[in-house]
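User: I'm curious whether this sequence folds into something compact or stays loose and floppy. Could you predict its structure so I can see for myself?
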Amino acid sequence: MLVAGLDIGSRSVELVVVDTASDAIVHAREIPTGPKVADDCRTLVEGARFERLLATGYGRTLAEVSFGYPTVTEIKAYARGAHAVHPGCRTVLDVGGQDTKVIALDASGRAVRFEMNDRCAAGAGRFLEMIAVALQYDIDALGRAALEGSSGTKISSMCAVFAESEVVGLMTRGSRREDIAWAAHDALVWRIVSQVTRVGGEPPILFAGGAARNSCLRRMVEERTGCEVFVPESPQTVGALGAALLAAK
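Assistant: Here's the prediction. I'll summarize afterward.
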């Protein structure tokens, strides 16, 4: 049987198709989330072969309303996907565009506790996107620049909008862009660490989502939590993979 998972995020949409005979991924595709999300979903699904599909992610309700697809929460999907790609992981971290999720797993991969920051952009990937624009970096270059920065600069605001203004002020006073980029990562990571602490997160941590490609973010999370951080080969498809595996049931 071919089963599919559709993860509709605020920044990208992923489709993964799994062959249940081998649990192997036979098809995977990702596109940026556009202004017409239903069209994005249709683009991914058309031409793909599968017998069952389960949707998850920020926009899963749209998939249910527009296409009649059954849905599953991101917590269950990410827990299942993380356990599939790294069976020993005990904590899942996903820094999305609109929210940051930390999920504690038991030895069997079942989600036992979770913490989600979805009320403020300062605790999610959108924060780094705003800082990147202010510093005139693309989002990938921001992480590389932060690795060249030092710890002397701080961003103290707890609000993403005010933090962006703080960045402009730091630049006006002559702070190096690399140091400001480091400070932005530092501010985000302390919020992440507090979430990991609240769920009682244990090592190893599986870092999922597009932000896992940010080497500075990964290094800081590892240093501040004292936990090994594992980044899968395709971190952005963990949720879609989990949804597909759950669809098999």
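Summary: The first helix runs from residue 37 to 45. The radius of gyration is 18 Å.
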